[in-house]
Amino acid sequence: MQASAGDRLVIRGHRVGERVRDGEILETLGERGGAPYVVRWSDDGHVSRIYPGSDAYIEHFAHPRKARPTGETERARA
To answer: Where are the beta strands (DSSP E) in the chain?
Structure first.
């Protein structure tokens, strides 16, 4: 399971009638986007570190890339 900051971690209920829990991934602490994750939970705003189990999945969102300077900008700085 790999994630990036800004993705959504969703954990399904274990039993019938249990709600789904979800939160925003604030930080990935493992190698190459792996667990553990620092998550802010949507239901109460609590922030925690979690190693998700097999009942979890990640919803990936497009993350804006940092703008790279153009050749003109680099020449103007020189």
So the answer is: 8-11, 21-28, 37-41, 47-50, 56-59
pTM over 0.90, yes/no:
no
Nearest to 38 by CA among 70, 75, 9, 63: 9
pLDDT digits 0-9 by tens, 20-64: 999 999 999 999 999 999 999 999 999 999 999 999 999 997 766
Distance in angstroms (rounded) separating the CA atoms of residues 20 and 3? 19
CA–CA gap between residue 22 and residue 30 (Å, rounded):
20
Closest by alpha carbon to 41, among 16, 19, 63, 14?
A: 19
18: three-class secondary structure by DSSP? coil
- In terms of Cβ atoms closer than 10 Å to its own Cβ (0-12, 13-18, 19+), residue 8 is middle
| CA count, 13 A, side-chain hemisphere, 20 | 11
